[in-house]
């Protein structure tokens, strides 16, 4: 049967050899309470039950098989078994004398617990007496849509924006509801619906009314709406002559604007702000600091409980410093000067969402200012929608990295979950990869990146392998003969992309502006930081960006341990080699190969892996419905061809400098 992938990981496909507990659990359900969220829970149970077993649940308070209720609603003998400390969003699912109990302190917790229970049923994983206790480790788990008001999506590759501004507010499309369901099912609790390169118009009543309609639709799913605030809005839509953050009129304008927004959206989440970066207006225009800018907006939102997510992606081509260093230099001196309702949003790496980057040196460097993670789910630099890259291992690599700022064991994840510096607010943002494509994300497998983001935002310590395993089972099949090879393919896919795009710490050699495909030759254009040669520095002497004390010394922004570790050629992980060091072509690698050969082998390996994926997929055609099968197959073929394109282009280009032949085993360019 045709499956266009619209149902994501909420397939609720038939469970053929169901065990008794699975068949039973949805048969007689006792749900306490009422309200919108409870209705949603019932709807979900019905969808799942009909999908799994072609039946509907019966609601009864007698001898039920499933009890769903708040801790203070369910019978006290069960309530005493519910874990403490669930907070506002946690849940506990456990079994007791043949019954399954889902309990929480809020209906939102019940919704999360219900989704989890249904996932367990689909995955055929039973609930034991102790059960499952889940409490989110991060408070704000937010998708950032880079969606414009004309429905184009910046760095979006899966169609247009799903927000149909023209039909809003009167038409609430089913897709908004399914979007909310999908997010709630993985614990995402916020969405910033507009591009960081913001249009001030979204803050006018015309659009606020539309945003409010979305907020109304999302609210029962526990999802708050956020908007991007263009710093110059007071001038563009407010008629003021300045947007200077210390100007009382400007401050007053934002206060009134905040009040107005909260009239439309009483639980409005707050603002995401890109300022002083890539042409966006900001406090620099008035000689003010990032803190002065952020604090002005924070003061306006404070009476209503809103927060400001102020992005640290601040850099300028007029600053001669290595772009790697600029955000750190700008923000660290401001540590402790931000208002309590500001959280600084930092990209995972210091350059820009490269296939691989060392973690951003700001993590660990601002103990008095909450920092949140910004990951990119959309694949701006990883082959857009057509190249398979399961990103959980990339996110995990960054989260597990040790910053050493409070000694060993100061992982980035501890900055993000707030435990390292006792942050009062915590957050994780993911730049969405969602569009109007029937399957939401272009590549069917990129649904897994949306899913993975949700799982890691909930628990930054979650393992990629578990995420992949669950996602495959929920989306396709629990058959081990399918799960094992697909999981392997997914888990290796990010490294494969690194191999054929930017191995060994090479970075930013993508084509200009669209960033699809190779462009190590990109020069000129008036901005050093927007050329590739700036990053790879290839010449007859060798290649790489020297970020040691002999070069830009970006390394000094990391803890002493890392300066030593990454600064030393003996100890630097080879995956970061050319990120931090400039080396001659005949530099001896650990493998015994010279640098040039090693680079070539990585590209070749990436090509071979991409080809191998086609075989893997071909062998599994029996497990996948025709539509998804063909769709994925054609994308895998594109990827294998383009891996060759990458290899050939990059090796031909660098070969002009190395003047060395390709080593044996690397195919000559086509
Ligand atoms: C990248 C990307 C831009 C985006 C920017 C940002 O530079 O290419 O499209 O606006 O990041 O994160 O602000």
TrEMBL record:
Keywords: Carbohydrate metabolism, Glycosidase, Hydrolase, Polysaccharide degradation, Xylan degradation. It catalyses: Hydrolysis of (1->2)-alpha-D-(4-O-methyl)glucuronosyl links in the main chain of hardwood xylans. Gene3D superfamilies: Alpha-glucuronidase, C-terminal domain, Chitobiase/beta-hexosaminidase domain 2-like, Glycosidases. It comes from the Bacteria. Its EC number is 3.2.1.131. One of its GO terms (cellular component) is extracellular region. GO terms for biological process: glucuronoxylan catabolic process. Residues 441-666 form the Glycosyl hydrolase family 67 C-terminal domain. Residues 8-117 form the Alpha glucuronidase N-terminal domain. Residues 121-440 form the Glycosyl hydrolase family 67 catalytic domain. The active site is at 278 (proton donor), 352 (proton acceptor), 380 (proton acceptor). GO terms for molecular function: alpha-glucuronidase activity; xylan alpha-1,2-glucuronosidase activity. InterPro entries: A-glucoronidase_C_sf, GH, Glyco_hydro_67_aGlcAse, Glyco_hydro_67_aGlcAse_N, Glyco_hydro_67_C, Glyco_hydro_67_cat, Hex-like_dom2. Coiled coil: none annotated. SUPFAM superfamilies: (Trans)glycosidases, beta-N-acetylhexosaminidase-like domain. Belongs to the glycosyl hydrolase 67 family. Homodimer. This is Xylan alpha-1,2-glucuronidase.
């Amino acid at each position: 049967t045709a499956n266009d992938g619209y149902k994501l990981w909420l397939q609720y496909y038939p469970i053929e050899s169901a065990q008794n507990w699975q068949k039973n659990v949805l048969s007689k359900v006792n749900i306490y309470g009422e309200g919108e969220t409870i209705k949603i829970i019932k709807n979900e149970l019905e969808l799942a039950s009909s999908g799994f077993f072609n039946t509907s649940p019966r609601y009864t308070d007698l001898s039920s098989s499933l009890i769903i209720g708040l801790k203070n609603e369910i019978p006290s003998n069960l309530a005493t078994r519910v874990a403490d400390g669930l907070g506002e969003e946690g849940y506990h699912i456990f079994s007791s004398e043949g019954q399954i109990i889902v309990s929480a302190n809020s209906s939102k917790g019940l919704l999360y617990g219900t989704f989890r229970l249904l996932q367990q049923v689909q995955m055929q994983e039973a609930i034991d007496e102790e059960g499952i206790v889940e409490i989110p480790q991060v408070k704000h788990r937010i998708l950032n849509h880079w969606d414009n008001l004309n429905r184009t999506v910046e760095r979006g590759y899966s169609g247009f924006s799903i927000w149909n501004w023209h039909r809003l507010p009167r038409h609430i499309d089913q897709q908004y509801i399914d979007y909310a369901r999908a997010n709630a099912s993985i614990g995402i609790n916020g969405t910033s619906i507009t591009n960081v390169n913001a249009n001030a118009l979204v803050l006018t009543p015309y659009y606020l009314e539309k945003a409010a309609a979305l907020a109304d639709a999302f609210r029962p799913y526990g999802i708050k709406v956020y908007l991007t605030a263009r710093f110059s809005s007071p001038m563009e839509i407010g008629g003021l002559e300045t947007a200077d953050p210390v100007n009382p009129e400007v401050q007053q304008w934002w206060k009134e604007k905040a009040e107005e927004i909260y009239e439309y959206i009483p639980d409005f989440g707050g603002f995401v702000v890109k300022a002083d970066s890539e042409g966006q207006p900001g406090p620099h225009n008035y000689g003010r600091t990032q803190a002065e800018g952020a604090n002005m907006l924070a003061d306006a939102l404070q009476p209503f409980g809103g927060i400001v997510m102020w992005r640290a992606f601040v850099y300028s081509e007029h600053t001669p410093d290595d772009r790697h260093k600029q955000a750190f230099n700008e923000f660290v001196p401001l540590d402790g000067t931000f208002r309590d309702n500001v959280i600084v949003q930092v990209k995972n790496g210091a350059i820009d969402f490269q296939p691989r980057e060392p973690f951003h040196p700001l993590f660990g460097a601002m103990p008095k200012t909450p920092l949140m993670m910004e990951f990119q789910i959309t694949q701006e630099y990883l082959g857009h929608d057509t190249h398979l890259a399961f990103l959980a291992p990339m996110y995990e690599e960054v989260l597990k990295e040790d910053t050493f700022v409070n000694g060993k064991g100061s992982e980035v994840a501890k900055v993000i979950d707030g435990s390292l510096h006792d942050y009062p607010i915590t957050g994780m943002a993911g730049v969405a990869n969602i569009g109007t494509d029937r399957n939401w994300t272009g590549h069917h497998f990129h649904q897994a990146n949306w899913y993975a983001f949700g799982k890691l935002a909930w628990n930054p310590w979650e393992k990629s392998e578990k995420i992949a395993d669950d996602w495959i089972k929920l989306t396709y099949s629990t058959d081990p003969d399918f799960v094992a090879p697909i999981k392997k393919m997914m888990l290796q896919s990010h490294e494969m992309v690194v191999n054929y795009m930017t191995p060994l710490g090479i970075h930013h050699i993508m084509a200009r502006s669209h960033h699809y495909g190779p462009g190590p030759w990109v020069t000129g254009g008036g901005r050093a930081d927007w050329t590739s040669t700036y990053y790879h520095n290839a010449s007859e002497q060798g290649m790489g960006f020297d970020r040691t004390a002999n070069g830009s010394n970006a390394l000094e922004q990391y803890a002493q341990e890392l300066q030593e570790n990454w600064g030393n050629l003996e100890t630097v992980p080879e995956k970061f080699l050319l990120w931090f060091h400039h080396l001659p072509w005949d530099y001896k690698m650990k493998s015994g190969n010279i640098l040039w050969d090693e680079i070539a082998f990585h590209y070749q390996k990436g090509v071979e892996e991409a080809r191998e994926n086609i075989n893997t997929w071909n062998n599994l055609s029996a497990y996948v419905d025709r539509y998804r099968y063909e769709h994925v197959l054609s994308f895998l073929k594109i990827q294998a061809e383009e891996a060759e394109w990458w290899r050939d282009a990059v090796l031909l280009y660098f070969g002009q400098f190395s003047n060395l032949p390709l080593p044996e085993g690397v195919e000559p360019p086509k």
